[in-house]
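Session log. Operator J.P. requested a structure for one protein chain; no other inputs attached. Running the standard single-chain path with token output.
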Amino acid sequence: MNKKVIVMALGIVVVTAAGVAVGRYGGAQPSKEQVAAQRQAVMQTTFDQLKSKDDQKGSIFGGSTDSSNHALIVEGDSIHISKQEFDFYKANVEMVTKLNQLQQGIDSSVNIGTDAELLNQLLKKELAAQYAQKIGITVSEQEMAQMVKTEKNRLYDPALASKGNDQQLIQQIMKSRIALTGLSEQEFWNSKQIQQQYGQTIYISKLYDELLKKGQIDGPAAFDTFQDQLVQQQQGQYTINTQLLNKS
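Structure written below.
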């Protein structure tokens, strides 16, 4: 089965498959229309829950009046991960997993791992980007702006939508994502926060290339191990509020 991975702002990743896998459901195979409706419902439910949890437009960018959303799950001299950031990441992972299972015809419960495992994924990204900067890797404002422009153009490219690769659903996800911030599309794409999120992606990509060039890793699996080692090495540099994490 051909698959395509589409990466967007703030870690949104959608894996789309060329058609629904046959024979994985216990009952009758749902139609494409039924699958599309199910996926739409999953997306809508996810953002409704996020909006209810934040209870304030603009909260993803710090506008929420609910101080508990901005309490830190991870706190250290150089790393901070808020409850709100973790909640959004967790909801996104669960949503994408459900969407992919529906598209691939997998009729089973969703297992996205424990909260500790999900937090570890966020830590790995943060620490990898910091390590990249520590060894002299740089990312210019122009690079960040160009990546935002490229991704934005690709997202709304009508040519991609005509190829039947789930572009419409992805557009709906991003529109819901933008609506959650309370910003206009232009404000969202031009925001410093989005620039920084794409900047983190570039840092990690450059770090991967650098380690590969130096022979310190030999592929994605080794890079994942390298990131795990960064987390282990930095454990004494931050604290995790497990009580707050367990409330997520």
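Operator note: The two ends are 35 Å apart (CA to CA).
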